[in-house]
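Deliverable D5.2: sample structural annotation.
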Amino acid sequence: MSVPVNASPKSTLTPLAHGALNHCFGCGLENPSGLRLRFFTAEDGSIVCHPRLGRRFAGPPGHAHGGIIATLLDEAMSKANRVRGVVAMTRQMSVEYLRPVPLGAQLTLTARHLSVHGRRHHCEAQLSDAAGQMLAMGTAVFVVVDPDRFRRNPATSLNR
């Protein structure tokens, strides 16, 4: 798997507006314990984010917890759907942890949409360090959901 990192410093990145997910752990700006990720769309349609993980996301000493790495990849892939106007939830995800992810370092998170088969959308993502060395990568299948389910009753919409 290889997500093109075409978002060079010369590329134009457009902030990705993604709705009112204010309390989302990954991207919600009103969630004080969340990651508060800010996503951008590159000229080629891929998703770009430049996270820097604090000590509260530690796993092994000085490095990120594997669950946080998976969350980063999942969030980026979900935005690869969102930029296409697709509201979908993760059905299945696979993560390859290639190298330890250092805390406090500038990282580059990229994702892109690969294909669609009915309600299933396939995406991939990668997390790299400042030198461009890939640290983790993932693929996922997302299933389109009706956004009205969340508006009707957010607390129970997934239990039906």
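Annotation notes: The chain has a mean pLDDT of 87. Residues 14-159 form a domain with the Thiol Ester Dehydrase; Chain A fold (CATH 3.10.129.10).
The annotation will be released with the project's public dataset once the embargo ends.
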